[in-house]
Each structure stands twice: as structure tokens, then as C-alpha cells.
Amino acid sequence: MARRDYWSRTDDLPTIWGNQWDLLLRQQYFESAGFSSSLGTIIYAILQVVITALNTTVIDRAGRNRLLLLSAIVLVTGSMLAGISFYLKGHGLALDSAPILAVTGMLVYIGSFSAGMGAVPWVLMSEIFPINIKGVAGSLARLVNWSYTFNFLIDWSSYGTFILYAAVNALAILFVVTMVPKTKERTLEQIQAAINA
Known about the structure:
By secondary structure, this protein is mainly alpha-helical. The protein is built from eleven helices and no strands. It has helices at residues 2-9, 13-16, 19-33, 37-62, 64-90, 98-115, 120-128, 134-147, 153-156, 158-179, 188-196. Helix 3 (19-33) packs antiparallel against helix 4. The longest helix is centred in the middle third of the chain and has 27 residues, at 64-90. The protein is elongated and about 55 Å long. The termini are close together. Mean pLDDT is 78; it is low at 1-18.
């Protein structure tokens, strides 16, 4: 019972670890990092499409928990790279390296997000919510998901924003390990029985 309660309150986590910020401020991010926003956006889009397409072929074989865990670990890395790059730039250190570090952080981040945290929570939701509330629960989760846009954070501190996202992703690692039910090679009935046990 506790798993279902926790999970239903955290279906909005994909946004908390920074995806909506990324969608809304991508060009500004590349420009402030000192990188071409056009080139950065093209590379970003190609990477996201390729990783998402590959993910559809491995999600069942790899298992949702494994993908979520790997994604959260790499999201911490991508966020830290971006945070470090903005820290260096803000303090006038390694100015030649900061743009490459920022772009690398963004690409690592979006690749990891596309492979795990972007899609897997929505697949899990369809598996763990009972059939009689799936539609309402999914709609409510999407509404809450889009309401957590923390765009003001980048104005607060460009590097602090990414360090905060890294911390949230570190918490996501603990959440996945302790709370997300295992669904690999289990029927919907078996998943529901395990959640209700």
C-alpha cells in the first residue's frame, strides 16, 4: 500500500529533475554557455530522437527499474557537469573549457533523461495504477507534471540550479531503489497483487 501512495505522489518527478526547464530554456542555456544555440539545439534534437528510439527496443529487456536507476545516476553526472561549467564561467576560470563542459553536461543529461526518466515513469504508471483509475490518475499526473516548472531558478544561480537538480536526482536514486515496484516479466495482475500485498 505504501508504494502506491508514494508513487502516486511522485509521478511528477520527471519535471522536478529539470526537464521542463530544459524544454523551455534550451536556447538560452546554449547561449549563456557560450555555444551556438542553433548547433546545440540540432545536436540535442538528434540525440534525443536516437536515444528515445533505441529505448523502445530495450525497455522490456533491461527492465524499468534498471533503466530508471541508470538514468538517475547519469542525470546526476550531467547536472554536475553543467553546474561545474557555469561555476567556472561565473568565476572566470577555465573559460575555454566551460562551454564544452556545459554542452557535454546538457547532452549527457538529455540522453540519460530520454533513456529512462523521460519515458519509464509513464510506462510504470500504466502498469501500477488499477484499471478503474488509470485515465484519471494519468491525467492528474500529467497536470501536476507540467505545473512544476522551476524556470526562475536559473536567474537565482545558474550553477546552483544544476547542483539542485543533481541533488534531486540523487534522491531519485534512493526512491527507485526503495519504492519503485519491479515489473519486469510480470503480468499486470501480478504487479497489482504485489502492490496491494
